[in-house]
Amino acid sequence: MIARIIGITVLGMVVLPVSPSGVAAQALRLPSPTVTFAAGRHGRVTGYILNRDGDDLLIRDETTNAVSLVTVTSRTNISSPSGFLNLERTAQAPTTLIPGLLIAVDGTGGARGALVADRIRFSKNALQIARQISAGDVVIKARERQTAAIAAANRDSIERATERVRDSLDAMNARISKLDAYVLRVRGTVYFAENSAALTEEARDVLDDLMEKSRGLEGFLIEVAGFTDGSGSMAEDQALSARRAQSVIEYLTTAHGVPLRRIATPVGFGSTRAVAVNTTPEGRARNRRVDVRVVVNRAQHEPPDR
Questions:
Q1: 107 - beta bridge partners?
Q2: Which of 103, 176, 252, 295 has the most CB atoms around it within 10 Å of its CB?
Q3: Where are the domains of the chain?
């Protein structure tokens, strides 16, 4: 689905378009952790998320390139700065921890040499870039004279952002290359009101039915993808589609107790991949949606070849 990145620099703008579909992704190997944390000892990691597998995050240090395994639990405090001068903090959901996000982690060594996260912090700017990565298109605008100031203030220069794009797309390609290991068991689509990410009663009924049909499945994984009708700007549509996906995730985890490890990284695709035209009210209503797929491990649910 995502096969390559082409970088073009025009008048101070870096544009990184991504081939959206129709091209088989090349299988790519994710790096193994190079850092281990002693059990019970405090540790700290600052870097960007290469990949997420349920509760586990693979983090690359932004300065040393060392790779750490970080585990998120229900007790992990996740937040970003807010308020005047960014002196306050706003709690964030675990679903914001997506590939490409630059984070700072404080925690304690646990099993497998991983760092069990007590606290995770990230900036709004870093989250915006990571969400653009998830959508499949990244547009980073910066005047040449402003780049140094932005990089110093946010530790998020164009060069680092571009590197995160490449690593995150590599991770996504690695995930895509593994899709043949899963088979679809249950799927459903929920729809939203215009400019809204709130679940309707009908949407809750669809999700309730989907989880009832998934009862008894072992080794399942839930994929969630949000979309919009294209009525806003690219950035607005992407943010709204991500909020819609997050609303579905929050309902599944709170109303049905779905563990975080059973949910793939939710993705907001904005107005891409429309299923109907956006020139009619009916078409726009069909595009204001979140697609939910429950897949299971093929090896666990299909007999071996004879």
A1: 43, 117
A2: 103
A3: 8-176, 180-301
DSSP 85: G
Q: At what angle do helices 158-177 and 124-135 cross, to 10 degrees?
A: 40
pLDDT of residue 69: 94
Contacts of residue 79, Cβ cutoff 8 Å, sequence gap at least 6: 89, 90, 91, 92, 119, 120, 121
- 33: which DSSP letter? P
Q: Provide the percentage of residues in the chain whose pLDDT is more than 90.
A: 40
**Is the pLDDT score of 137 beyond 60?**
no
Residue type, 44: R
Quote the CATH superfamily of domain 180-301.
Answer: OmpA-like domain (3.30.1330.60)
To which residue do tokens 């679940």 refer? 199
Rounded CA-CA distance 286/230 in Å is 12
pLDDT higher than threshold 80 for residue 219? no
Burial category of 299 from C-beta neighbours within 10 Å (exposed 0-12, middle 13-18, buried 19 and up): exposed
- What is the third-level CATH fold of 8-176? OB fold (Dihydrolipoamide Acetyltransferase, E2P) (2.40.50)
pLDDT attached to residue 83: 67
SS3 48: strand
CA distance 246 to 197: 9
Residues in the chain: 306
Helix spans in 155-198 (H): 158-177
